User: Fold this.
Amino acid sequence: MKVFVTGGTGFVGRAVVKAMLKRNYEVALLARNSKSLDSMGALSDAVSSVYGTIYDAEVLRKAMRGCDAVVHLVGIIREIRENTFERAHYEGAVNVMESARASGIQRFIHMSAEGTRAAAQSRYHQTKFKAEEYLKASGLHYTIMRPAVMFGAGDKNFTVLADMIKKAPLVPVIGDGTYVWQPVAVKDVAELFVLSLGNNGSEGKTYEVRGTEAFTFNHILDLLMKLLGVHKPKVHIPAGFVRPVIAAFDGLMPLPITKDQLIMLLDRYEQPESNFQEDFHIRLATLEEGLREYIGTNRTITESG
Assistant:
């Protein structure tokens, strides 16, 4: 099977492409430019590639020729100028879906995100949901994955938190820190994408992809501090103080957290049960296993100090 992949040069994309090549899939990759392709390292030599973006229908249709399926992984975590959530998550996704249909491709695997739902407060989730709804009505044989916060070498969550813990004298926490994460390994998410290509039972389904354990944010910071062998006091900053500061400066200057990210961080919606094990029987890596591979020392997280 030959698979066309968008977003393949990103954090999740590299893991997905690696898993595909391991199972002998032929990969056609969309890359923005040679620099983004270089980020693939040795993987770039094992794929066919084309330069372009998800907004160029002509490029997409040419690149999809001879492909049997599409895996769409493009997403952004913050808006920068014209690269908005609406454009990246919805307009770009629709362009990829329609290009797949025009190319005669029926199988379409789509990456959405945990928390995507009709009543979502964040623009990130609203646009993700809008793309999901379009895909469901497209006639394509779709599978939608909604991964939770992912961990793995090069992630933008745990690596950043660990760096902050090492450098800052105090560990800032927005709000009470009792909001919950249920992290999942990026390599496990990648495996699910690849397995879905050969699993007809996954067609027409949306999967909530979460890890084995749920942690409060406070607990995650404690785990990271134990892994790094440091102990620093946590300082809780009221969300009511943070919101107006972000509202005033978001979009005007780079901030550690955006308005949308704050909404998602504090969002305490009722989470649907994780349901992918019904169709995919894989062993998930635990957060401890994952963090020990790429953050800090090799000490066991549960050890003291």
Residues 85-102 form the longest helix (18 residues).
